[in-house]
Design brief:
Oligomer: single chain
InterPro entries: DUF4256
Structural class: alpha+beta
Strand content: 15-25%
Number of strands: 8
Helix content: 25-40%
Number of domains: 1
Strand order of the largest sheet: 1-2-8-3
Protein name: DUF4256 domain-containing protein
Pfam families: DUF4256
């Protein structure tokens, strides 16, 4: 039997307090969004609260962000200054992990994101977040890699250096202690 991905009442209250405080301290990320609406939607979708808790526990510091002004979805993204500590040292996907002959990392970004119930950011979403705040000044984050690049064995990641956002490529099987991934959760 699969265990339900749901927080108990005590953890739900504690997480909502953290999220509300972060929301109120960072209004520039989500101008025009009302916390009461966010909280009501979250309470109607307990599996999303579980995912947000996983984002928080892995060091993501999730907060609401407006990525598409036309959308009615509420979007949470990781806003930790550096790529979340609990989601580093991962190769890109399962195929990449299985291709490593030795020194395999524990897992991969795509599988961890799926387990948590979040998505990797696209390159464009990553750049949008960087236009709101600077992060990944010492780390880097895998981003959703286009199929044509992945078919050739590569994957892409981004970071911020010298006041600019950079997109790089690497073999999907590579992993580094300073590379992880940032997530996105739509409510």
């Amino acid at each position: 039997m699969t265990k339900k991905k749901q927080l108990d009442a005590e953890h739900t209250v504690a997480l909502l307090i953290i999220l509300k405080k972060r929301f109120e301290q960072n209004m520039h990320r989500h101008q025009g969004v009302d916390w009461v609406e966010v909280e009501n939607r979250l309470k109607q979708q307990p599996e999303k609260l579980w995912s947000l808790n996983q984002m928080e526990e892995t060091g993501g510091e999730p907060d609401v962000v407006i990525l598409d002004t036309k959308s009615k979805e509420i979007v949470f993204c990781d806003f930790a200054v550096e790529t979340p500590k609990g989601r580093r040292s991962l190769c890109y996907d399962r195929k990449a992990l299985e291709s490593r002959k030795e020194h395999k990392p524990e897992s991969n970004a795509i599988d961890i994101a799926e387990i948590i119930g979040i998505e990797l950011l696209t390159e464009e979403q990553y750049k949008q977040l960087q236009s709101i705040e600077n992060f990944d000044l010492k780390t880097s984050s895998w981003v959703k890699t286009p199929d044509d690049i992945r078919a050739l064995g590569g994957a892409i990641f981004c970071d911020s250096r010298y006041g600019r956002v950079f997109t790089y490529h690497n073999g999907a099987q590579s992993y580094y202690a300073t590379r992880g991934f940032r997530g996105l959760l739509k409510i």
